[in-house]
């Protein structure tokens, strides 16, 4: 999942070298934290959060085979 979020984020932003993705696995959930440059926050979130919702939907679809809940957090 980490690689999927990283590829999507790097394709969207102007500063792909500043994209950092971390993955924390807990009991029955996985938290993926996406950190981008402050100038790229708007590009990753999108208008009214549409791009962020789309990223979360793709990750949810990719994780459907696992029994774990995947949460994507976007930070600066």
Task: Provide structural commentary.
38% of the residues lie in helices and 26% in strands. The protein has a 3-stranded mixed sheet. It has helices at residues 2-12, 41-45, 50-62; strands at residues 20-25, 29-35, 69-75. The protein has 76 residues and is α+β, with helices and mostly antiparallel strands. The chain has one domain (2-75): GMP Synthetase, Chain A, domain 3, CATH 3.30.300.20.
Major sheet: size, sense and barrel closure?
3 strands, mixed
Shape: globular
CATH architecture field: 2-Layer Sandwich
Number of helices, counting only DSSP H or I runs of 4 residues or more: 3
CATH topology: GMP Synthetase, Chain A, domain 3
Mean pLDDT: 94
Share of helical residues: 25-40%
- The domain tally reads 1
What class, by secondary structure content?
A: alpha+beta
SSE string = HEEHHE
Poorly predicted runs of 5 or more residues: none
Quantity of strands, as a count: 3
Strand order of the largest sheet: 1-2-3
Based on CA atoms alone, the radius of gyration comes out at 12 Å
Q: Determine and state the CATH class.
A: Alpha Beta
- The share of residues in extended strands comes to 25-35%
CATH superfamily: K homology (KH) domain
Straight-line N-to-C gap: 20 Å
